[in-house]
Design brief:
- The chain is of the alpha/beta class.
- The chain has one domain: Divalent-metal-dependent TIM barrel enzymes (TIM Barrel, Alpha-Beta Barrel), CATH 3.20.20.
- The protein has 9 helices and 10 strands.
- The strands form 2 sheets. The chain has an 8-stranded parallel β-barrel with strand order 1-2-3-4-5-6-7-10, surrounded by 6 helices. The chain has a two-stranded antiparallel ribbon with strand order 8-9.
- The chain starts with 6 loop residues before the first strand and ends with a helix.
C-alpha cells in the first residue's frame, strides 16, 4: 500500500536479472527499505564503479528512498578454507571494504567456506580474518563483518579468536537448512553476535536441497524474527533470491510475508 511504512528489510540483487535500475525499482515498489548487493554484480562491482559512479549510485538510491544495507563478498568456491582461493578471497574482501566505505554500507557478508573439510590451518584462517578487521579499522568505517560457513559449529570459536567486536554471524537460512542445522537453534546459540539475517528458504530431504520462496520451506521465519527482536538484533534482514525460478515474484511474495511478520 502506498502509505505503508517501508519494510525494515533489504532486497538482495542476487538472482535478479536485468539492469540494476530495474532491481532498484522493484525493491522500491515492493516496499523494501533497502537493497543488498554483491561484489560480482555486473554493474555494481568494485571494479566497475569508480568514485564518481559510486556517488551516482547513492544519489539514485536516495531518490527512491532506498538504503544500501549490506554488501556480499562473492568468493571462489573454497573461499578462505582452500589454499588455492584464499588470496583471491582476501583481495576481493579488501576491495569490498573500500566499496562499502564509499557507498556508506555498514554490513559486509563473507562465507568462509567449508570449515569441516578445510585444508587451511586455523591459525592461517584467524590471521586472515584479523587482517580484514584491521583493514576495516583503517578505513574508518563502522562496518560489521558478518561471517557464515557451510557448517556453523566452529564459528563461535573462530570469532572469539579473531577478537574483533564487529566480527559476527550472518545467519543464513537456506545454508543452515542445507547443513542439516536448525536456523532457530543457531539464532539462539549466537544471540548478541548476529550481524545479518539472510532470509532464504529451502526444503532438505536426505542429501537433496531445493531452494523455495520464503515461507514455503523449512525456515521458521516468524519464530526467528521474534527471537531476533527479543535479542535486540539491529542488523539488516536481507531477502536472498538466488536459485529461484521467478525471482521478481519471489521478491514480492517475501515483501508481503515480512510486512505481516514485522508489523508492530
Amino acid at each position: 500500500m502506498p502509505n505503508d511504512p517501508p519494510i525494515p528489510a533489504a532486497l538482495s540483487l542476487d538472482g535478479l536479472a536485468g539492469p540494476a535500475r530495474d532491481s532498484f525499482d522493484l525493491a522500491a515498489s515492493a516496499g523494501y527499505a533497502g537493497i543488498a548487493i554483491a561484489t560480482n554484480h555486473p554493474e555494481l562491482s568494485p571494479d566497475k564503479l569508480d568514485l564518481s559512479a559510486r556517488r551516482h549510485v547513492r544519489k539514485i538510491l536516495d531518490s527512491k528512498h532506498l538504503n544500501l544495507a549490506a554488501l556480499r563478498i562473492a568468493t571462489p568456491r573454497g573461499s578462505l578454507t582452500d589454499p588455492a582461493t584464499i588470496d583471491r578471497t582476501m583481495d576481493s574482501a579488501r576491495k569490498a571494504i573500500d566499496l562499502a566505505r564509499d557507498l556508506g554500507i555498514h554490513t559486509l557478508a563473507l562465507n568462509l567456506g567449508n570449515l569441516a573439510s578445510t585444508t587451511v590451518s586455523q591459525s592461517t584462517l584467524i590471521s586472515a580474518l584479523r587482517q580484514l578487521a584491521q583493514a576495516v579499522d583503517a578505513s574508518g568505517t563502522p562496518l560489521s563483518l558478518a561471517f557464515s560457513a557451510d557448517t556453523s559449529a566452529p564459528l563461535a570459536d573462530i570469532l572469539k579468536q579473531v577478537d574483533y567486536d564487529y566480527a559476527r554471524i550472518n545467519l543464513e537460512g537456506a545454508r543452515l537448512i542445507a547443513a542439516g542445522e536448525s536456523p532457530l537453534d543457531a539464532a539462539a546459540n549466537f544471540a548478541g553476535r548476529i550481524a545479518q539475517f539472510t532470509a532464504s528458504d529451502a526444503i532438505r530431504a536426505g542429501s537433496s536441497l531445493r531452494p523455495v520462496e520464503l515461507g514455503q520451506g523449512q525456515l521458521p521465519l516468524s519464530e526467528i524474527l521474534a527471537l531476533l527482536h527479543e535479542q535486540g538484533f539491529r542488523g539488516p534482514t536481507v531477502v536472498d533470491l538466488r536459485n529461484l525460478p521467478n525471482s521478481p515474484a519471489a521478491a514480492l511474495h517475501a515483501a508481503h510475508l515480512l510486512r505481516m511478520a514485522l508489523r508492530p
